Amino acid sequence: MLRRRLRNRGERGATLPELALAGVIFCTASFAVIEFGRLLWTHNALVDATRKGARYAVMNAQNTAAVKNMVVYGKSSATGSDTPIVSGLTTGNVSVTYSGFGVKAGTVEVKITGYQFAFVIPLIGSTLTMGEYKTTLTGESAGQVPAAI
Q1: How far apart are CA 34 and CA 123, in angstroms?
Q2: Averaged pLDDT for residues 35-60
Q3: Does the predicted TM-score (pTM) go above 0.85?
Q4: Distance between CA atoms of residues 67 and 61, nearest Å
């Protein structure tokens, strides 16, 4: 028993540095998982926003301002108090291009470019420029009958 006490005497207080090291590693890994989850959620939200915008565009031809509002705010008419679907997304990040668009003809392309993802954790970095998000759909009749059949 006396030998055991003498042998462990040099190890007193060793648990505190071990706990500090393990705590730093655990917290870093936890925050990294949270940040990656936010990044993935933002990616999915941007993809979904372009899809909703393109769907709205084929049903409401040639109204680019309303399409941009649909992409950013989730509704066609936005007020100054509306918050974007994704923080930091503006109508300036959205472009809408109609090509030969008409009843059952042409396409519309809705694109989000230059979106800056802001990290919450300062150790990772401040921002990340996301890639281009694009959805292209063809014109639909939406129950309308063409003038010349």
Answers
A1: 13
A2: 93
A3: no
A4: 9
